[in-house]
């Protein structure tokens, strides 16, 4: 029988109405057997996520401020869901345990995880599924790092005997039973770990949008929804700022080539976005799946005559960055030039000192620093004849946008273009217009 792991995000489980939608979705396909949940999220734009309320409880407890009202707010969020769905979950007993633990010793990860812990139990009761506490199956080291190998074993052992289960997302525990959370939005990772552990046929990630857009909808009016893209393309787009799935959620599922389907709980009829290893031959492949970008970059340009004839210049330069723990986004080498693109916020802490050391160590003929650059990635694994690239460059030129840097590796996954920050949005619109034409 086919097995689907379905993860529902915070907005999908924000109130009783959303729970009803989730139940209908799960019951519509019997293959949806393992359900991973987030804590209740925002019901309206100014609402507060339960996880944020719990983090505030911890902060107040730590600084000896009152926590009573905040805990009541958390309790009421769950109580309304339980009451509206006619369930019998003992929320007051559970809240009492949480309150006592908070008083005894405030622990951030324990508190932050309680939203998922309670929500998963409530959904399990509503669906008639077994509740699985990831404290026993998502394994962390004592210093709070996820241990994927032990997790794989423990999660497979916990899920295999169960026909249907609801698993709380976002947290796990170490061998002493101490709770640790993943990074924010980490229930996406929990879902992917569960999909891998159970060798699922599909990992569905249910959220409040109908998939990944080919460009940022705040910049481009009504961009196309990407129907299929590869794991690598998703990684490139998420790195550049497109957010639809936690970046670390791709790896576990992709290791077993489990497709990931981003779906909309509020519009379940939409097919959403499918993330796969290999593009299905029957589907039309856009040469460019999407465009995304990052403002806030600085370019360092180092020039020295005859440097291309020798060896080691770039290595020395990169070593100066490494010494400062300063990562770079791109390193482009030309004839007698090395150009580095670095995040301005990271560079700002050591800029003067780094520039001085470059001068002292490498004695360059020219050292230029250009701030306020945006880098745009035009992402697509297949661009036969580089036609999209030609269109993109042409569109930027027609829009009068200066191209400061340009970079494409042999793998051809992305064309990376640096443009002035004040033309960033114009550039995204021009590029999107060109690739869709
Ligand atoms: N509830 C957690 C958060 O708000 C984790 C998650 O939703 O995935 O970040």
In short:
By secondary structure, the chain is α/β, with parallel strands linked by helices. It contains 14 helices and 16 strands.
Structure notes:
By secondary structure, this protein is α/β, with parallel strands linked by helices. It is 38% helix and 21% strand. The protein contains 14 helices and 16 strands. The strands form three sheets. Strands 3-4-2-1-7-9-10-8 form an eight-stranded mixed β-sheet, with helices on both faces. Strands 12-13-11-14-16-15 form a six-stranded antiparallel β-sheet. A two-stranded antiparallel ribbon has the order 5-6. Strand 12 (330-334) and strand 13 (337-343) form a beta hairpin. Helix 6 (148-159) packs across helix 7. The chain starts with a strand and ends with a helix. The model has no long low-confidence stretch (mean pLDDT 94). Bound molecules: aspartic acid.
Keywords:
alpha/beta; 6-stranded antiparallel sheet; 21% strand; binds aspartic acid; 8-stranded mixed sheet; 437 residues; single chain
What are the SSEs and their pairings?
Blueprint: E1 4-8, H1 16-28, E2 32-37, H2 50-62, H3 68-85, H4 91-104, H5 108-127, E3 130-132, H6 148-159, E4 165-168, E5 171-173, E6 179-181, H7 187-197, E7 202-207, E8 228-230, H8 231-239, H9 250-255, E9 260-264, E10 273-276, E11 290-303, H10 313-323, E12 330-334, E13 337-343, H11 344-347, H12 351-362, E14 366-379, H13 387-398, E15 405-408, E16 414-420, H14 424-436
Parallel strand pairs: 1-2, 1-7, 2-4, 3-4, 7-9, 8-10
Antiparallel strand pairs: 5-6, 9-10, 11-13, 11-14, 12-13, 14-16, 15-16
Helix pairs in contact: 1-3, 2-3, 2-5, 3-4, 3-5, 6-7, 10-12, 13-14
Bound molecules: aspartic acid.
Aspartic acid binds near residues 10, 38, 39, 170 and 186.
